[in-house]
Structures are given as C-alpha cells and as structure tokens.
Amino acid sequence: MQNLISREDYDRLILDYDTWLFDCDGVIWHGDHLIEGAIEVLNYLRRQKKHIIFVTNNATKSRQSYKKKFDKLGVQADVLPKNKKVYVIGETGIEEELAEEGYQYLGGTDPEDNTLKPFKIENFTPDLDVGAVVCGLDTSINYTKYCKAYQYLRNNDCLFVATNEDSTYPAGGGILPGGGSIMAPLVLASKRKPVATGKPNTTMLDCIRAKHNFDPKRSIMIGDRLETDIEFGKKGGLSTLLVLTGITSKEDLQQSDIPQDRIPDFVTPSLGDLRILVSKGSSSS
Ligand SMILES: O=C(O)[C@H](O)[C@H](O)COP(=O)(O)O
Ligand SMILES: [Mg+2]
C-alpha cells in the first residue's frame, strides 16, 4: 500500500491508468455536498482523455436521477443505455430501473405500504405474480414493508435480491445505516441469503464490462470503503485507490487484520488531492 504524497506519485497514476472507476458516496460527494476539488479533478481526467465510470451501491436513485444529480452538481456523466412482478424495499431508484427493464413492481414508494399503521396479516392478499423481492437502501422503511416482503420470501421460488450489503453509508451530515442494515431483518426472518448485486460482487463489474471495453491492468477503482470498493477493484484485477473522505479511516487502515484482498494499492486523503496535477499541469500532458 503506497501513500500518495508527491506530485510524481500523482503523475504516475495519470501515466499508468486509462480507465478510472469512481465510487460516489464518500468519494465524489457526501449527500448533496461535493468533495472539494472533485469536479476539477474529474474535468482534468477528461482532458487527459481518461475513461470515467461511476460505480455506486446507492440504489435510492435510478441512473436517470443520478444523471440529474450529476448535472445539478456540475459533474459531467452519461447514463448507460438498457417477468414476474417484483416487491420492492427501496425508493424511486429501484422502481425506475425496474420500470426501464419492463418489470412491474409493488411496495417501494406506494403510499399503501408507507404507513405506520400496524400490519394485519388477515387483511393482506399476496400477489401471486410476485417472483422476486428486491431490497436496497430505503429511508422510509417500516414494519408493513418487512411483513409483506417476508410473506413473499417464505416461498423459496421467490428470488431474494439485494442491491448491496453495505452496513453504513456517509450521508452528508454523518454516517447512517446502509442498504445491508435495511436488508438484515429479512435475512434473519426468512433465514435466506440474498443475491447481492452491488460492490464487491463481480455482478456489477460484469454489467460494466458488458457496456464498456477496458483493460483491467490500465484501470483503477477509486473508493472510500475497503470491503466494497477496494475488494471489488481487486476482484476485477484493477488497481485500487482508497480516499479517506468516507467510511474507511486512517485508523482503520492501521488494523493488522485487514484481509489481503481489501488492501488498496494506493491511499490519499481525498480525491481533491489530485488537483496538484490540475494546477501545475501533468508531466504526461
Ligand atoms: O447502503 C447503501 O446504499 C450504500 O452504503 C451507499 O449509499 C453506497 O454508495 P457508494 O459509496 O457505493 O456510492
Ligand atoms: Mg462510498
């Protein structure tokens, strides 16, 4: 693991990597606040003709909504172009993505399920067409949604899919429970383990590879979390750069029991540190 310190260290990255995969929460932004210098660095990388891909586990927004968020924050980004019903624990992000893929869904933001009234199983008629429960970060999670999802999951033929297993996430003002923590009660109740599609699982990388051509040896994954971003990059044979603006702290890195597949190749306090290249111009330009 190399701490990036000098101008030469950052220059080396520019020379060595053509494809840069960026985690979002904790790397590009915290909630609605951009990490200082992030835009300048992204713009600089674009000027250097680097291929930039955003890889987030946060399913509260669809790719279209992320595009709007990127636009609002002034970050240039392009949306990647893409039969039974799905019961959703999550927000509009999952709903819009399912709709785009042609799936009908229940739950999610439906006001009927966003209630704090006690759940009465005798009043519940399961939809026999539900073939999957998809669970992601849901900031309005409640007992009714858990009860309905659990009823569907009692049928082993009903798929159980999680967008990610992140325990926490950096939410602007502080660290909050993440998608994995929302999913945990369902795992306990159903005694089932979901298929998790987000980082560090290779499903996400397979989807990216289906849309983008890149050489793993000339690619780098930039993230704020060892057990998702860094493990994801290493599994895919990419180089990895950890920033300390999100979940993983300097103290965490000093632990002696970090598994080998989670040790990043490089560490720098913030993505904004790469501004050193912008101000002086890269030796590679
Ligand atoms: O639980 C979640 O959804 C995630 O922890 C979180 O939002 C991750 O976002 P990322 O850091 O992958 O952009
Ligand atoms: Mg993150």
Automatic annotation (TrEMBL):
Residues at which substrate binds: K199
Transmembrane feature ranges: none
Enzyme class: hydrolase
Reaction(s) catalysed (UniProt annotation): 4-nitrophenyl phosphate + H2O = 4-nitrophenol + phosphate + H(+)
Biological classification of the source: Eukaryota, Fungi, Dikarya, Basidiomycota, Agaricomycotina
Keyword Hydrolase among UniProt keywords: yes
Organism: Clathrus columnatus
Protein name per Swiss-Prot or TrEMBL: 4-nitrophenylphosphatase
Molecular function per GO: alkaline phosphatase activity; metal ion binding; phosphoglycolate phosphatase activity
Xref: Pfam families: Hydrolase_6, Hydrolase_like
